[in-house]
Amino acid sequence: MKLLALFAAVFAQRAENFRNIVNKIPETFTPTAKTSTFSGAGSVQFTTSSFDKKQENLVLVWSEDGAFSSPFNIIANIRPAHSEFEKFDSEFSEDVSFSFPSDSSVAVSINVDESDSRFFYVLSFSDPFSSSDVTHSGDDFSHRANFYLGELQAGYLDVNTMIAAQQTTNGVLGDNGITVSDDLVYRQATQAELEKIGFQGPGIAVDMPNDDWFAAHRSAEYVTFATDYSSAKLMRPKNKEDVVANTKAVLEGWEVEISCGPIPEGDQSTMEVSIEAKTESDEHQSFRAPVSELIVGDKISKKVKVESWHQSTGVWCKFFEGGNLIGYTNPQTFVVNAPTELPAITATYNSPKCGFVGSGAEEEIATCAAASATFPPLFLQWKVIKADGTEELIPTKPTETFSLKLPVVISQEYKDASASCLVYQGTDPALKSAPEFVKSLSPTGSGFSLKKKTSKLDMHVIGRDVTCQSDIFGATTVAEDECSDVQNIEVTNTVNCPLETFYKEATCRIVLVGGGVPLESTYTNDECIAYDMIESNCTESAYKKCPKPDAPEELSELDEGGSGPWFLLFFVCAALGGALLVYMNRSSPNQSGPKVTDSSQSSLLDTV
Q: Which CA distances in Å does 469 have to 169, 394, 400?
C-alpha cells in the first residue's frame, strides 16, 4: 500500500510540474477555427499537422472563446513517437481517444453533444523535463462542434419571398449550409425578415424568380429546402402566366367550383385554408376554415355562385400552419361578360435570355395566347410534327385557357420538328359537346440554345494570390450575371508557408445555383519547407550546438595532391598519340581533302 501511495504521489507531482511548464507560455494563440456540424451528438475529429520530431509532447487543450492562453485547460499530453498519452482531465476520460498516423502527429476524436460549444487545440513541446530550454509551437487550426437544433424551418414571408432557416448552437451553418432545389437563386435572409416570419437561426431567402425559370419549372409542384439533416417543402411560387392560364369565362350567377390543390405536405389536421381575391380596389376573403372540412380527394373544393368580385386579379387558396403561410395555389380568375368575337391570338417561340436548361425536365418552348378574354371560352392545343412525320398533340385534348405553353423535354427527336397552335371555341356547356375547331397558327421566331453550365473549377495560386473561378463564367456570380450558375466563390483554409510570402495550403470552393455538391479543389505547395524541421541559419548557444559540414572526399584528395601522378600519366599519353597522327598523315601523299561544289548542282557532302 505504501508503494502504491508513493507512486501516486510521484505521478501527481510530475503532473503538477508538467502543468506549471505549460502555463509558463506567455503567448495567446488565436488560430482559425474549423467547425464540425452535427445533429444531436457527434465526435469532433481532426488530425494535427506534422510537428518537428523534437517537439515530442503534443498537448490537447480547450477554451470557451477560441483564444488559448495561460492557465491552459489541459485535457491530455500525447507522445506520438511512443504511441502513448496521459489524460489530465477526468471529464474527458471516456470521451477522448487518439491514434497515431505518424511519429510527429496525432489524430484526435472527442465525443460532444449539443451543450458543448468549446474550442479544442493542440500545442507542441520539446521534452519539458530535459536540461535544455523548452520550445513550443501550435497547430494550424482549432476545432469545435456546431449542432443543428430542431428541424429546418421554411415558409412564405409573402407571396413573393420564401424563407428557410436553421437554428444552431453557434449561429452558423455547416459547409453545405441550406440548399434549395430547382435551380432557384438564393441570398442570405436579413435579420428583419427572420424576425418577421418568426424563424430562429441563420437562413436564406428566395425572391420571385424570373419568367425564364417558370418556363423551365412550370411542372414542379414543390420547392425543397434542405440541410445535411432535414428538409422542408413549399409549394412553388406562381407568376402572371399561372393566372392567365387558369382563367375561365363565366356569366354572373353561374355556379362554379373553386378547386385548390395540391394540399401542402404536412399535418393536415393543423392546417387552415382561406379563399381570397383582390380586385383593383378591394380585397375579399370568402372564408377561412380547417383544411379537414373541405377535402375532396387530394384537393380543397368549394362551390360558389359567380359574383362581380370574382372578376379580379385572381382567386387564391392560401394554406397556413401555425400562423405561417406555407403555400398558395395557382390563382383562378373569372371573366364575367357577354358573348364576344374571337380575339387576336398569337403564337411565338420562347427565347430564354440564358438559354434552355436541357436537363431532362420539361421546358416551355413556345406560347399560344389570346389578346383578351372571350365568351364562349377558348380551347387551345399544340400539334408537333417531328422530322420523321409522326405527330404529337400537347395536351392530348384541347384545354380551356387563354394562354397555352408548349412543354417538351428537349432531345434529338425534336430536331427539325415544327409546331402549330390549334384554336377551338367552346359551345354551350349545357349541351356538353366538344369545342369547335376555329383555326391553326404557326409560331413566329425560331431556334433555341442550351444554358451554359460550369463543368469544372479552375484554380491558380501565385504567392498568396489565389484565383478561383468557373471554367465557363470565370469569377462572375449569379448576383452579377443572372446567366451564371455560380452562387458564390470561397477561398478557405489558407495556411501560410513559414517565413515565406506564399501559401502552404489553400482550398477553393464554388457553390452552384440550385444546390448539389459544390466544386472544390485544394492546393498544396510541396516546395514549402517546414523551417522548424531544418536549421538553415544555426546559431550556437550554451545548450544548442550547430553541426559542422562534412568536407567532400574528392576535394580533400585534390588538396593533398593525391591525384598528381595520374594527371602526369594522362599528359604523356596524349603527347605520344598526337605525334603518331602527324607521322601517319605525312606518309600518305595520295590523300586529298574534300572538294566543295556549287550547292545548286550537287550536295555539300559530295567529295572527289
A: 33, 42, 48
The fold of the 240-336 domain, in CATH, is Immunoglobulin-like (2.60.40)
- Distances in Å between the Cα of 349 and the Cα atoms of 209, 283, 384, 400, 450 are 21, 36, 13, 21, 15
Q: Are 155 and 165 in contact (CB under 8 A)?
A: no
Break the chain into its structural domains and give their ranges.
2-139, 148-235, 240-336, 345-441, 457-524
Burial bucket for residue 91 (CB in 10 Å: 0-12, 13-18, 19+): exposed
2-139 matches 345-441 in fold: yes
- Which residues, in sequence order, are bridge partners of residue 284? 277
C-alpha cell, 263: 394540399
Dihedral sign for Cα 557, 558, 560, 565, please.
positive
Mean of the pLDDT values across residues 540-563? 46
pLDDT per residue as tens digits for the range 384-412: 998 888 999 999 999 999 999 999 887 77
Q: What's the predicted TM-score (pTM) here?
A: 0.60
Q: Determine phi and psi for 88, rounding to 5 degrees.
A: -110, -20
State pLDDT tens for residues 410-447. 777 777 788 999 999 887 564 567 888 999 999 988 66
CATH class of 345-441: mainly beta
Report whether 177 contacts 488 (CB < 8 A): no
Q: Which fold has domain 2-139?
A: Immunoglobulin-like (2.60.40)
At a CB cut-off of 8 Å and minimum separation 6, what does 452 contact? 354, 355, 472, 473, 483, 485
